[in-house]
Amino acid sequence: MSGDSYIISDQNGLYFLTFTVIDWVDVFTRKEYRFVLTDSMNYCVEKKGLIIYAWVIMSSHVHVIWQAKEGFKLSDIIRDFKKFTAKKIIYLIESEPESRRIWLLRKFEYAGRRIKRVSKYKFWKDSNHAVLLEPNQVNIIDQKLNYIHQNPVRALIVENPEEYIFSSAKDYSGEKGYVGISLLR
Predict the structure, then answer these.
(1) pTM (predicted TM-score)
(2) Is 71 left (phi over 0), alpha (psi -120 to 50) or beta?
């Protein structure tokens, strides 16, 4: 169930989505955790019918423009993506060197205790802030694409969008990025 009023009404529509870590915890400061996300996105493209048009991984959230191929449901892909990545990242936090291990696990456990359907840890917020992008809304699609690629610039991580390697901006500048995408333009 969505945690906000932005519902995926068209399972094969084009959507701007935001996946946020609970309490906006800065988890994706470690490259290992970011690679879990990129690897999982690639898996969803190859095996689950996902089409990725844009993406960026920030320290506590991910923005994407995604669509499911015919015969697949975007909600199912999102559910599987979030479930797998949460489990894998928590496993890495528990098993790999992590200076914030105790603090992170306590945050996720505390969030999990507030929800009956969660057995131990809650990693992602339930909401996806899904915004349907109609094909005829070229200006809005371009605005969302620009918003995604400008995120690391606005955060003063890089000067130019294509310099940020955990984003599809590289692909839009003619280079190959970490995730297999389809260009919108």
Answers:
(1) 0.92
(2) left
